[in-house]
Design a protein that fits this description.
Length: 185
């Protein structure tokens, strides 16, 4: 168990606390928890790189913790009307598409190695900024009117572009696999 993995596990444990704070309209706590999670994500990555504390477990846990926090925050913000439902549905659908594609290729004994694409990294960064802006607005009762709509639009565009890029990558990986053969009976 490496230090980065322990930090990542702490982030996983923090997700329900952030969601509960959001559902109770404790925006100060939700914002603080979200910031702690974000900072700890950077810290665990720094420690892993600086002290060569990479692990296979960490390679799975780190993106899972990040995704769980983002999806949870977006779903709650959509539920309470702080984010448009079309954006939340687009985000969740993209993630479900990726998970289904990975599972299908694994079941078909042709697993695909999922590496984050540049567009996906940009998408995640914008989603993190958007969630932080919304939580920050709610926590300190200040509205960044031109910023939030721009981030919502940019997040939507990047989410669709990222889904398309992953789909193309997956289709290239799977193209021709199993074509012309009959499934086992």
């Amino acid at each position: 168990m490496t230090i980065p993995n322990m930090i990542t596990i702490m982030r996983l444990v923090l997700v329900p606390a952030v969601v509960l704070a959001m559902l109770q309209a404790r925006w100060d706590w939700a914002f603080a928890g979200f910031l702690v999670a974000g900072i700890s994500d950077g810290v665990d990555g720094f420690i892993a790189r600086r002290f060569n504390q990479f692990s296979k477990l960490g390679a799975y846990l780190d993106p899972m913790a990040e995704k769980l926090l983002l999806v949870s925050a977006f779903v709650v913000m959509g539920f309470i009307g702080e984010l448009p439902l079309w954006l939340v549905v687009t985000m969740v659908s993209r993630d479900a598409l990726i998970v289904c594609a990975v599972l299908l290729s694994t079941v078909m004994a042709h697993p695909v190695e999922m590496k984050p694409l540049l567009i996906s990294k940009a998408n995640t960064a914008i989603q993190i900024i958007l969630a932080a802006v919304v939580l920050g607005e709610l926590a300190i009762s200040i509205h960044f009117d031109p910023l939030r709509p721009a981030l919502i639009l940019l997040s939507g565009v990047l989410t669709v572009a990222s889904a398309a890029a992953y789909l193309v990558t997956w289709l290239r990986h799977m193209s021709g696999y199993g074509e012309g053969s009959k499934p086992d009976s």
